[in-house]
Amino acid sequence: NISGLPSPVSLEFNVTETNGSIIALEYSPDGSVLAVGTSNGTVRLYETGSYTLIGTLSDHTQTIRSLSFDPSGTWLASGAADDRVVVWDVANQTELLNYTGASNDIVRVRFSPNGTYLAAASTDGHLRVYRTDTWLQTDDINESSVNPFYAFDWGGRSDSLYGVSGPAGQATNL
Fold first, then answer.
1. Is the distance from CB of 52 to CB of 45 less than 8 angstroms?
2. Strands 52-58 and 137-142: what pairing?
3. Least confident stretch, 45-49, 87-91, 107-111, 125-129
4. HEC assignment per residue over 117-137
5. How many angstroms from the chain centroid is the CA of residue 117?
């Protein structure tokens, strides 16, 4: 146990055909909610005070690959192997948006630090960026399926996007 860090928490999660295996985890910005993405396409929400299940979000049909809360914790984006990005209203546990433009697995979703953008990378080589005030796509950076984005993230507190693609893992300021 590292000094100053809380003791580890054991989350009771039985892996069954119904529950699926845990594939992705994401804490809300204030740490009050843990989102768990599963291999059966559901997102389970836990309240972190007692780690009790407070909701299950079900719309994906395949494995959840990535989760991201917006900076306020109001929205949760999920990306999955069903080629879709879903944006959820966390408080109401309802689906806000469902993007179906990818032709392959969504491997990473991430809100920008100020919450203005949502970016989603898929194995078809596309990194798509959406504005959160209109939910319209603003950019589609295509590295082709030969050089898909392996990883990307927003730079610090800015809206600069950095990606890693290609067999050599080249980092690029997008």
1. no
2. unpaired
3. 125-129
4. EEEEEECCCEEEEEECCCCCE
5. 13
Q: How far apart are CA 7 and CA 153, in angstroms?
A: 29
pLDDT tens digits along 40-89: 999 999 998 888 899 999 999 999 999 999 999 999 999 999 989 999 99
Q: What is the DSSP string of 57-120?
A: EE--SS-EEEEEE-TTSSEEEEEETTS-EEEEETTTTEEEEEE---SS-EEEEEE-TTSSEEEE
Contact of 20 with 41, CB cutoff 8 Å: yes
* 32's tokens: 């009050």
Euclidean distance between CA atoms 162 and 93, whole angstroms: 31
Res 1: pLDDT: 47
- Asked if 152 and 127 count as a contact pair (C-beta separation under 8 A), the reply is yes
Q: Name the token pair of 16.
A: 């069954």
